[in-house]
Automatic annotation (TrEMBL):
PANTHER family: PROLINE SYNTHETASE CO-TRANSCRIBED BACTERIAL HOMOLOG PROTEIN (PTHR10146), PYRIDOXAL PHOSPHATE HOMEOSTASIS PROTEIN (PTHR10146:SF14). The keyword Membrane does not apply. HAMAP family: PLP_homeostasis (MF_02087). GO terms for molecular function: pyridoxal phosphate binding. This is Unannotated protein. Keywords: Pyridoxal phosphate.
């Protein structure tokens, strides 16, 4: 079964890589500038070890307890990303297992992650989650685009956090190209106060091409790589 699963993952990875390469060519970008993050939430630790054998260095999880258990089980040394919303009360735990938190959208969460990173005696990379929802709505989470710089300045003052860039999720039912163009503008403003924050995490299985056109340096791929998700428990 392991060999069959590895073959399946390799086939899926080849297809994802072909899509990423085509999108980079269309955008006149270098393929090496875009990383594929394997989103492994709900999938077993055995899949993560297989992905490591296929060359993956980074994986993304979105549930604290699941991630901690899998990290303890996985044999490979990887960078673990926390993606999505983080509850403030879970921030300390997340700071202990995560290498990068994608989804910081408020100052009090940044403060809680700072305390967690201090407790873990580590430096924690973070991305600001930028809302791409239409004005007046808040479906996918994130800080308002007009508040990105203020939040960045707050994070930059925290000794155990490193601001690595931005992340976003395109709004449900919206035009992903238009949304990711807004993200690119927000990222440009961020670079004015944090020139080292070069990372743009955007695009998933259904819209990675639009994200790459507008500057994504990382696409977060789950279903197109790993297949249909097992049911949540």
């Amino acid at each position: 079964m392991t060999d069959e699963r590895k073959t399946e993952l390799q086939r899926n990875l080849d297809e994802v890589n072909a899509r990423v390469a085509a999108a980079c060519a269309a955008a006149h970008r270098v393929r090496a500038d875009v990383r594929v993050l394997a989103v492994t939430k709900t999938f077993p630790a055995s899949d993560i070890d297989l992905l490591a054998e296929l060359g993956f260095t980074d994986v993304g999880e979105s549930r604290d307890q699941e991630a901690r258990l899998k990290k303890a089980e996985v044999k490979a040394f990887l960078r673990w990303h926390m993606i999505g919303q983080v509850q403030r009360k879970k921030a300390k735990q997340v700071a202990h297992w995560a290498d990068l938190v994608e989804g910081v959208d408020r100052a009090d969460l940044a403060d809680a992650l700072q305390l967690g990173a201090q407790s873990a005696e580590k430096n924690l990379e973070v991305l600001i989650q930028v809302s791409l929802d239409p004005d007046g709505t808040q479906n996918r989470g994130g800080v308002d685009r007009g508040q990105v710089v203020a939040l960045a300045e707050h994070i930059l003052a925290l000794s155990h956090l490193t601001l690595a860039g931005v992340m976003a999720v395109a709004p449900l039912g919206g035009d992903p190209e238009a949304a990711f163009e807004l993200l690119a503008r927000a990222h440009e403003r961020l670079l004015g106060v944090a020139p080292g924050a070069q990372m743009v995490s955007a695009g998933m299985s259904g819209d990675l091409e639009a994200a790459i056109i507008h500057g994504a340096t990382q696409v977060r791929i789950g279903g197109a790589l790993l297949g249909n998700r097992p049911p949540l428990t």
